[in-house]
Amino acid sequence: MKKLIPLFGFSLSLMLSACKKDTPVTKTDLLTAGAWRIVAMTANPGIRDANGVVVTDLLALEPACFKDNLTRYEKPNTLTFDEGPTKCDPSSTQTTQHTWAFNADETVINAVISGDKVDFTLLELTDSRLRYSYTEGAGAGGHTVTIVFNKK
User: Fold this and answer.
1) Could you say which DSSP state residue 23 is in?
2) Backbone dihedral angles phi then psi of residue 18, each to the nearest 5 degrees
3) 109 within some domain
4) Which CATH number goes with the domain that contains 90?
5) How many Cα atoms are found within 13 Å in the side-chain-facing hemisphere of 12?
6) How many CB atoms lie within 10 A of CB 149?
7) What residues contact 90, with CB distance under 8 A and at least 6 apart?
8) Residues 44-85: tens digit of each pLDDT
9) Following CA atoms 50, 51, 55, 59 in sequence, which dihedral angle do they give, to the nearest 10 degrees?
């Protein structure tokens, strides 16, 4: 009988774990699970700089103090930009808050940043990577900007 008690306990734990239903992770869960750091920013077609050179790698043009910034999507619908450890302007605030929301089918992040509405088309969202694009400019002069973030 003593040998049956541990075996019964083991069998019971297996049955209980098999009965647990895994709650699916939503896009909101993935997006709000931590801070995001930018790792790539590109423009298509490229943008001419002041010297007339066409540039597609926009992140390469940014100073190091920009590259350590963090973006946090929080519930309910708060978007926080954090200057990170190195501020580009020491007198600027460490964080600024804006708003965000998914569209109905969670394929677009609708954000209002400093009063401007921006729609980010979601291209990839995993527990460690966020990639989206948006259009800047209109008509033939428009560019698709794609931004990639890694979870910090």
Assistant:
1) P
2) -70, -25
3) yes
4) 2.40.128.540
5) 6
6) 21
7) none
8) 999 998 899 999 999 999 999 999 999 999 999 999 999 999
9) -60
